[in-house]
Amino acid sequence: MRVLLFLLAISFASTYGQNTLQLPKGQESTEAKITLVSWMEGHWKGMAFGGTTEEIWSPASGGSMMFVFRQMLDDKVNFYEVGHIRELNNSLIFELKHFDTNLHGWEEKDEVQQFRFIKADSNRVYFDGFTFENVSPEEMNIYGLIGNDDGTKSEIVFNYKK
Known about the structure:
By secondary structure, the chain is mainly beta. It has a single domain, classed as Beta Barrel (Lipocalin). Helices cover about 10% and strands about 50% of the residues. It is built from one helix and ten strands, in the order H-E-E-E-E-E-E-E-E-E-E. The chain has a ten-stranded antiparallel beta barrel. A hairpin with a 2-residue loop joins strand 7 and strand 8 (about 130-135). The model is unreliable at about 1-15 (pLDDT under 50). This is DUF6265 family protein.
């Protein structure tokens, strides 16, 4: 029994948070262009938070790619997100806002969730708390650190297919 618990603990420790990075305080983002994420263009569908999710990403243009997101529970919209990845100061930033079903913002009027670019390697693009993974032309994963009510963070994966 102890061996089983030990193996479960190692398994959990090795998978928790291994797909996301956090930018150390005071560290600058590395240089990047919007073409780095142009593979994300399209209409993506998946499952998360107990329901269906979809994201629609525009083509890269004008130094940005915009997106809309919605999450559905029991065939009803639960919430929306609107945002973009844009070029800023010779790097990239991922920004978004949340909205309820009546399009009332979760964040304050002038508040935007911001996730600075960290790095890219092989098939992944890392932002502070989010990772976009190009699995294939028809599949991507988005890993995100999501805040819990108790102040901790959990990594969640959004697996999308076109």
